[in-house]
Amino acid sequence: MTTFDDLLEKLKAAGEPTRLRLLALLRENDLSVGELVQVLGQSQPRLSHHLKNLSEAGLAERLPEGAFVFYRAARSGAGAAFLDQLFSQTRPDAPEFRQDRDKLREVIAARAASAEAYFSSIAETWDSLRALHFPNDAIEAALLDLAGPGPYRRVVDFGTGTGRMLLLFSGRAAESEGIDFSHRMLTVARANLERAGVSNSRVRFGDVTAAPFEDASADLLIVHQVLHYLDTPGDAIAEAARVLMPGGRLLVIDFAPHDLEFLRAEHGHRRLGVRHDALTDWAAQAGLTLEAPRSFDPPTPGAPGLTVNIWRATKPALSRARAA
């Protein structure tokens, strides 16, 4: 229940023209301060001051991303409930909101162009890596099968990259969120989600070994082609177990052990694949029950290639006594 003082603080924060416009925009998209400057045509210090007020009132969330800072409207708790009530009383076609949305479309288009330019620059090496393993369509079909039909309350994607897993599971989740350590990849993911019209998914900057999520907040968690980049993969599995709800499922997709040394130098791989016994140990230490992997051999028998494994693990459900 919101206290009198909390309600008054939220009313004061929202009851200013620029801050109301900011809230309307942040309910549509996660936006950086620079993008908001482009949309609203106001100075960065001025908007930063308004955003600070909204954050302190619990109406917006601050998301640092390297040298950038993104903001989003509150999506849960008292702040989200307040915003739902507030915007149910406003006209979405009001001239101020309509003009801001038109300008926002230009900013989103620029974001998409930046993402396209980045992928054009890495397309050759990206495609050469994909050619080493089984086609993605079959792997993704297996992922959907192993995850089950859902519906899921919340899907979390560790190391979201291009946002592909969020797109794949968007129809089975009430909401989903991905994290990544690369600002450029997050730009690509945001552009892909926007292009696909996916409104129930978000991405943010985050470390998979110290994830910015509450305990027991996801019922499906995905770690897709991430562990071979990490010095301490067990820490990521432990974080996944922490974030999973009791009874939740973890899907890990990675390469089986291989000897393609060029992947270290040219693609930044720290590990040449992930051993099943190592993942079994990490899962056990995190309190998860791991199943044998479903494997996909390289596309060309006898030629150099990568075997892709998909592991499924489950976090034990609470007993009735513990739940009570």
What keywords describe this structure?
single chain; 324 residues; Arc Repressor Mutant, subunit A; Rossmann fold; three-stranded antiparallel sheet; globular
Q: Please state the average pLDDT score.
A: 89
Total strands? 11
Q: Give the oligomeric state of the chains in this entry, treating copies of one chain as homo and distinct chains as hetero.
A: single chain
Roughly how many Å apart are the termini?
Answer: 24 Å
What is the second-level CATH architecture of the largest domain? 3-Layer(aba) Sandwich
What form results from the Cα inertia axes?
globular
Count of discrete domains: 2
Ranges with pLDDT <50 over ≥5 residues? none
Give the CATH superfamily of the largest domain.
Answer: Vaccinia Virus protein VP39
Largest sheet, described in full?
Answer: 8 strands, mixed
Number of helices: 13
Helix content: 40-55%
Structural classification: alpha/beta
Secondary-structure element pattern, one letter each: HHEHHEEHHHEHEHEEHEHHEEEH
The CATH topology of the largest domain turns out to be Rossmann fold
Radius of gyration from the CA trace? 22 Å
CATH domain class name of the largest domain? Alpha Beta
Strand content: 15-25%
Structure description:
- There is one protein chain.
- The protein is globular, with a radius of gyration of 22 Å.
- The protein folds into two domains: 103 residues, Arc Repressor Mutant, subunit A, CATH 1.10.10.10; 193 residues, Rossmann fold (3-Layer(aba) Sandwich).
- The protein is built from 13 helices and eleven strands.
- Strands 4, 5, 6, 7, 8, 9, 10 and 11 form an eight-stranded mixed β-sheet that branches. A three-stranded antiparallel β-sheet has the order 1-3-2.
- The protein has 324 residues and is of the alpha/beta class.
- The relative contact order is 0.10.
- Helix 2 packs across helix 4, helix 3 packs across helix 6 and helix 10 packs across helix 12.
- The longest helix is centred in the middle third of the chain and has 36 residues.
- Helix 10 links the parallel strand 7 and strand 8.
